[in-house]
Amino acid sequence: QAKLGGKNNARVFEPDMDAARRFRRALELDLGSALTNGEFEVFFQPLVDARRIAIVGFEALLRWRHPVRGLVSPAVFIPVAEEIGLIGEIGAWVLGAACAQAARWPRELTVAVNLSPAQFRSRDLVGTVKDALLRSHLRPTRLELEITESVLLSDSDGSLAALHDLRALGIRIAMDDFGTGYSSLSYLRRFPFDKIKIDQSFVREMSTRPDCIKIVQSIAALGASLGMTTTAEGVETAEQFAQLQAAGCDQVQGYHFGRPQPVGSMIFDLAPSLIEEPAAA
Ligand code: C2E
Ligand code: MG
Ligand code: MG
Ligand code: MG
Predict the structure, then answer these.
(1) Hey, which end of the chain has fewer CB within 10 Å, N or C?
(2) Residue 37 has pLDDT above 70, yes or no
(3) If you ran DSSP here, which 8-state letter would residue 170 be given?
(4) Where in the numbering of this chain does the EAL domain appear (predicted)?
(5) Which residue's CA lies nearest to atom 11 of ligand 1?
(6) Which ligand has the nearest atom to the CA of 197?
(7) Torsion over CA of 209, 210, 212 and 213, rounded to 10 degrees?
(8) Ligand with the closest atom to the CA of 253
């Protein structure tokens, strides 16, 4: 029997660390060829007007169909793509694919695309966006770009200039995951966002923590007074929806209204059962 000294304990964990490093290295290698192998796919999740209870747009959410691992979550591979400098190329592909799809939808619905901070640094973002619009013939007013406050953390002058240029084209800019960062309020002062997306953690905790309802109400009021649209993310139940309607949120998004869907299974109208739902809490 080996002694259980510090040295041996450390050795026990070494294979695991190697496995993690191997997984990471494999992801990096596979990401390098994922685009050319056609392994990426954009899913679309409905954005719903809370008063009319109607679909007003869709958010584009990237999926990676890995030939061996299956569907890999963007939460796993986007950070890796950012670190190894591939997000510019991947992001440009998402913009192109999302705009091309939206141009073929039956109604003039909005398409929302997520942007990484690295996309503001690595290449001509404004040119890439213009290119996607020109190729798809999508009107700029139908495109919404979602950013998190981290975009404004580093190199904020360049990022702010790009955001102003994009907005001047008629594109709307949304602040994603609002309320989770370090200084969300100060970012509202730095850029005239068109939309605030209230992070799903507030919605999730509304039933157990009454404070969360008050926070959501306050963000909705703040957004309204600043002339911004407010969207609540992660709405999973009819009860949450009723509370968010009462709180004054303009839009809702979540599994209650529809999961992110591949292009082939998209439905452009809500189920009648959702529309007939009583609005009162
Ligand atoms: P996000 O932009 O905040 O997107 C919302 C996430 O919440 C999505 O996760 C969506 O599938 C999930 N979601 C929607 N409704 C519900 C619900 O009712 N309950 C729960 N529990 N979750 C819900 P997803 O698709 O895994 O994406 C995760 C994150 O990855 C996104 O967060 C976004 O930050 C990033 N991402 C996705 N696609 C792209 C992309 O094309 N480019 C970049 N840069 N980031 C992306
Ligand atoms: Mg988003
Ligand atoms: Mg979000
Ligand atoms: Mg997020």
Answers:
(1) N
(2) yes
(3) T
(4) 24-274
(5) 260
(6) 3
(7) 150
(8) 1
Nearest to 198 by CA among 23, 163, 190, 188: 188
- The residue whose CA has the least distance to atom 23 of ligand 1 is 234
Cα distance between residue 12 and residue 88, in whole Å: 39
Q: Are 40 and 93 in contact (CB under 8 A)?
A: yes
What pLDDT, in 10s, does the model give residues 63-108? Answer: 999 999 999 999 999 999 999 999 999 999 999 999 999 999 999 9
**Is 143 within 8 Å of 136 (Cβ atoms)?**
no
Largest CA distance in the chain: 71
- 105's tokens: 């939808």
Beta bridge partners, 174, equal: 146, 195
Residue 1 confidence class, pLDDT cut points 50, 70, 90: very low
Q: Does the beta carbon of 177 lie inside 6 Å of ligand 1?
A: yes
pTM score: 0.93
Distance from the alpha carbon of residue 149 to the mean position of ligand 4, in angstroms? 11
* Atom 10 of ligand 1, nearest CA residue: 260
Which residue among 62, 73, 113, 114 has the greatest number of ligand 1 atoms within 8 angstroms of its CB, and so is best to mutate?
114
C-alpha distances (whole Å) from 256 to each of 147, 159, 270 are 24, 34, 10
Sign of CA dihedral 215, 221, 224, 225: negative
SS3 per residue for 13-51: HHHHHHHHHHHHHHHHHHHHHHCCCCCEEEEEEEEEECC
- Long-range CB contacts for residues 49-52, cutoff 8 Å, separation at least 24: 49/250, 49/251, 50/241, 50/244, 50/245, 50/249, 50/250, 50/251, 50/252, 51/245, 51/250
- CA 104 – ligand 3 centroid, Å: 25
